[in-house]
Amino acid sequence: MSRPSVHRVADYDDLSRVAARVVAEAIRDMPTARILVATGATPMGAYRVLGKLTGAGEIDASGATVFQLDEYLGVGRNHRRSLGRWALETFVLPLSIDEGRFVRLPFDDAALTAYDRRIRDEGGYDLAILGIGENGHLGFNEPPTEADAPSRVVQLSAASRRSNARYWDPGAVVPERAVTVGLGPILRARRIVLLVSGARKRTILRRALFEPPTPDVPASLLQRAHDVLVVADRAAAPDATGREDHR
Ligand code: F6R
After folding, report:
1. 98 alpha carbon to ligand 1 midpoint, in Å?
2. H or E element at residue 130
3. Whose C-alpha lies nearest to ligand 1, atom 2?
4. pLDDT tens by residue, 192-213
5. Which of 96, 154, 236, 238 could bond to 196 as cystine, CB 3.0-4.6 Å?
6. C-alpha dist (Å) from residue 5 to 176, 227, 241
7. Are 197 and 42 in contact (CB under 8 A)?
8. What one-character DSSP code corresponds to residue 90?
9. Whether residue 195 has its Cβ less than 6 Å from ligand 1
C-alpha cells in the first residue's frame, strides 16, 4: 500500500494549470488513452486549460476514448443537468475528441456488470480524473463503499443530494438514484489524478490521505491504488506533506 503523492499548489488557477499539465502528459504518453472523467466544479478549470492547449495544437487527444464516470437516473442525455452532457461539453468536444469516442454508462445493474467485464477485458482505464465529495465519495460511490465495488445503480445520500442541489434550479428535485463506475474499476486505473480545491474539502482530504483506509471514506481507498496523484490547493491541503509548486 502506498500513500498517494500530493502536489500542493497555491490556488485554484494553479490547480487547473497543474492538473491540465498532468492530463496532457498522460495523453502524450498514451495517445489512445481510455480516460474516465469526473464532472463537478473542481475539474472545470483544468478542462478549460486543456481545451486551450488543444486549440493551440499543443496536445492531440483525438485518439483518446472518454468514459462517463457517473449519471443521474431518470435524466435524459440532453437534459441540462445530465452529467454525460456536462462531460461532453466541457471535456470531450473542447479537446476535439469525436462524440463517437465518448462512452456513456448503461442504466441497469445487469448491463453495468457486462460493461465492467468488457472494460476489464479491454485493459481497464488508463487515466481517471476524479473529484472528491465532502462525504468522501468518488464518482457516486457513496460511503460506505468497498474497494472492490462494481459499477452499479446507487441511491444518492442526502448529503450528496444537498451538495449537488447547487447545480440545479432552485426548487428542482435532485434525482435520488444514479449510476456510477464502481470503486473497483476506478482503483484499477493505471493512473489516477484527484483534484481537490477549497476549505470545504479540507477535513475529508485529510481523512482520505492520512487515516487508515475505510469504506466509510471511499476516497481513502485510493491508498490501495498504485499510481495516484492528488493535486490540491492550499485551502484544501494546508498542511499536507508532498511536492509543492512555488509560483
Ligand atoms: C461528478 C463526480 C463527483 C464529484 C464530487 C466533487 O462526476 O464524480 O464525485 O467529483 O462530488 O464535486 P465538486 O468538484 O463539484 O466539488
Report:
1. 24
2. strand 127-131
3. 139
4. 999 999 999 999 999 999 999 9
5. 236
6. 34, 8, 9
7. yes
8. I
9. no
- Please answer whether residues 65 and 27 qualify as being in contact, where contact means their C-beta atoms are separated by less than 8 angstroms: no
Handedness of CA 241, 189, 103, 139 (dihedral sign): negative
The residue count of the chain comes to 247
Is 135 annotated in the active site?
Answer: yes
Candidate list 137, 141, 164, 233, residue with the active-site label = 137
Positive/negative CA dihedral, 51, 82, 154, 65: negative
Q: How far apart are the C-alpha atoms of 235 and 206, rounded to whole Å? A: 12
Q: How far is CA 167 from CA 13, 122, 138, 197, 215, in A?
A: 21, 34, 18, 17, 27
Answer yes or no: is the C-beta of 133 below 6 A from any ligand 1 atom: yes
Selected catalytic residue, list 71, 116, 126, 142: 142
Ligand 1 touching residue 111 (CB < 6 A): no
Amino acid, res. 106 = P
The helix (run of H) or strand (run of E) holding residue 244 is strand 243-244
Ligand 1 touching residue 41 (CB < 6 A): yes
Chain segment 139-196, per-residue pLDDT in tens: 999 999 999 999 999 999 888 898 888 888 888 888 999 999 999 999 999 999 999 9
